[in-house]
Amino acid sequence: MNNWMPLNDWVMHMNWMELLVVFIFAIVVILAMIMLHLRSRNDKKAQDWRRMEAAWSIHLPAVLAREEPPEELWNQVRADEKLFFVDYLYRIACTIPERSVANPEYRQLMALAAPYLKPIARRVQNPKTDSELRARSVATLGKLAPLQYLKLIEDALNDPSDRVAFAAMRALVDQDDPHASDLITRVFSRFHDFNPEFVAALLARSNPKLATPRLVEQLVNPHATLWARVVAICTLEHWPAAPEFVPQLTKLGKDQQQPSTLRALALRVLSAWKAHAEARELIYEFASGDEEILRAHAMYAIGRLRLKNENELLELGLYDTARWVAIEAATAWEQIESPETRDSRPRWYLQSLDPALETAK
Amino acid sequence: MHDRLYLIIEILSILVISYFIVLNGIYLLQGFFAYRLLKQHTRRLRSVDFNMADSRECLPPVTLLVPSYNEETTCQEMITYLKELDYPDFEVIMINDGSQDATLEILKRELKLEAALHVNPAKLRTQPVHEVYRSTVDPRFWVVDKENGGKADALNAGINYCRTPFFCAMDADTVLEPDALIRIVYPFLEERHTIAVGGIIRILNGCSIKGNRVAHVSLPKNFWAQLQILEYLRAFLAGRMSWNLLGGSLIVSGAFGMFRHSAVMEAGGYDVETVGEDMELVTRLHRMYLESDRPYLIRFVPDPVAWTQCPERLVDLYHQRERWQRGLVQTVWKHKRMLGNPRYGEVGLVTYPYFFFLEMLGPPIEFLGYALFFILLLMGQVFWGFAIALALVSFGLGMIVSLMSLALGEMNIRRFNNRRDLWTLIGCAFLENIFFRQFLNVCRSWALITAMKGSKSWGRIQRKRFEENTNPWPVDRHIDEFERV
């Protein structure tokens, strides 16, 4: 104790400025130590990852090809590495474009993950887990055990956090389950803060046969929000033609009481579905319309349907004073002339969509 | 007389000390909030599949606007880097802003340009456009050749020819990470009210490039560049990240930022009257949306990375910082109506006053502090021990802020691989207080005067080819780790 006396004396005689200096430099030292600790931790983590991945990746290709039993790989996973292993499998799953149950490689990947997923499921069920981690867990279950934890993922659609619910939707869209499909089409409107094209692209991955009737129902429902109707119609565009719904879309396109965004999108779907006769009707009507969005979509549809006899309309479009009509006309011209069969994407609607959605509010 | 002099000195001292306390207090708060936000963001990223192997069609088309003025040394490599970008649907509009060197010839040669059909460009006023070209080897590339009018004017010309709902403004000496576009677009998908997103700018000097991408991150040998690395980390990871809490920063860096085309058109494009066109545009966007009570978001995200060269000579650094600060002064003064105005919400009450008092008036106040301190010291009015203690407090607080930024950098995916680099940066955190900080203060204080004089000079920074400013590719032990990242 006596050893500390000089230090105590020194501290007692220091004025506030000196104390402040000591305090600040103590923090500097602590921060430097924290930083070095962080670096060591990161280095160790990276080293551990390298070691684990090196061990697992030796066996994985053979196990996925069913040349080795899964046990070969499971034996490499230590007790404290289970969550890392799930993470590893999740990343592998993300690189497989075709994630249907029919894909044997993907099925094998799911089988590999199956014994380790319970703690992940518990995270989803635990309301105290933060939303980022819950979202990650739902995404993991969605990729690695969508059928096994279907109920859990379906419940996550109603999670208070949009992020978790969206992860659940992403997981469910790949399922052919009618109940899941029904649920998604009921709840997707909760994501009204998301970009509608983004949501539509995801919805488009669900089974068209199961989801089309409900989406058309949304589309023609005048009480649904414009956002939900836009998503519904954009989703339909991604799918193969459903001739039974063409009359409804044509009617929507012709109805001048409907928002012009929806009318324009109806033409977009009709041209994607190659409904030539109905699309032509709308093209002629829209090409002389007052609104830029309608004229622009008329030009777009000419290009998409590759209508070679509509040069006059395209020329008119090229000289249109509205910029986007001219751009769509030029793009359409390029597309008709081009030997490529790839469809160009309409440039206009994304520009106009946001203001339209705001006005609709 | 003496009494008055002492009173003035006392008032000035209080002003300087208050500034010092408030500035450092805000920096510390920024570091704290940035830590929380960065942690949250990192966790959030883990639930996003950026490979998007199955949903790439949902990514909107974007245009990269690359204004180029006398960029003959970098434009060839630039094209190669841009071609490597991992994004399904993008166009590049390179704007040759009346270059006096061989920029256009190189572009013509590399891209095999042909005059393209003019399609009703938008109506932002710019210097006359001579010709619009399109590449015959890669139709995604366009070149707009125009009269010289400055960066803002060149960007406006690019916006006029932009055909996509989003555009990315970048510098001709910026190298984007291959996945930078996907990452910077993502906030627009998750939140449709997003109108602008800024990514992080990292310093390329000293890094190794392999296969058209930055493969190994290491410190440059040049001391000034080392200090700037620390400064960038502080500005982006602590500063801009923390402004996400309060409606977003007033700056989205001109070197790498994504904007909603319709919002920028509505705002009237870039202001050609200021040299800080990036900050001015973002401030005007804030103002426009807040005045019309429309929801909007301006965000900084730390994972889309753009690499840029920083000046290695003090004279270049002086020109750069003087211009940046002049741009800031012009912008802040132009929108002074927002200062403390509750109509502009958090932006008017917190963000704007911060930029006005601490970023615009701060440097001269700090400069005054140094001057005052030395005067008092010479007059024998300051006790030496106290003087040293005060300097140490100042150094210490500066170091704390820098170390916090370094710690935040450790949470980021593109860290310095070498542990020695980290030690060097810790050393820089101390050494920057000795000359660098004062030097920057002089540059920035001088900018206040040049801004008042109405100078619009841009200044030139010596550019190097990317390889000249980076390390040759070493036999790298970390290649596996990099591939994994």
What does this structure look like?
The complex is a heterodimer of chains A (361) and B (485). Chain A has 361 residues and is mostly helical. Among the domains of chain A are: 176-240, no CATH class; 255-361, no CATH class. Helix content of chain A is 70%, strand content 0%. Chain A is built from 20 helices and no strands. Chain A has helices at residues 5-13, 16-64, 70-74, 82-94, 104-113, 118-125, 131-144, 150-156, 162-172, 178-187, 196-203, 208-220, 226-238, 246-254, 260-272, 276-287, 292-305, 311-318, 323-337, 348-360. The longest helix of chain A is centred in the N-terminal third of the chain and has 49 residues, at 16-64. Residues 1-5 of chain A have low confidence and may be disordered. Chain B has a domain at 20-358: Spore Coat Polysaccharide Biosynthesis Protein SpsA, Chain A, CATH 3.90.550. Chain B is globular, with a radius of gyration of 23 Å. Chain B has 15 helices and 12 strands. In chain B, helix 6 (223-243) crosses helix 12. The model of chain B is unreliable at 471-485 (pLDDT under 50). Chains A and B meet through helix 2, helix 7, helix 11, helix 19 and helix 20 of A and helix 1, helix 5, helix 12, helix 13 and helix 15 of B.
Q: Name the CATH architecture of the domain at 20-358 in chain B.
A: Alpha-Beta Complex
Strand content of chain B: 15-25%
Number of helices of chain A: 20
Gap from first CA to last CA of chain A: 73 Å
User: What portion of residues of chain A is helical?
Assistant: over 70%
Segments of chain B where pLDDT lies below 50 for 5+ residues? 471-485
Shape of chain A: globular
Fill in the CATH topology of the domain at 20-358 in chain B.
Spore Coat Polysaccharide Biosynthesis Protein SpsA, Chain A
Assembly type:
heterodimer
Mean pLDDT of chain A: 85
Number of strands of chain A: 0
Coarse structural class of chain A: mainly alpha
Main interface pair?
Answer: A-B, 64 and 57 residues
Q: Would you list the SSEs of chain B in sequence order as H and E?
A: HEHEHEEEHEEHEEEHEHHEHHHHHHH
Beta-strand residue fraction of chain A:
under 5%
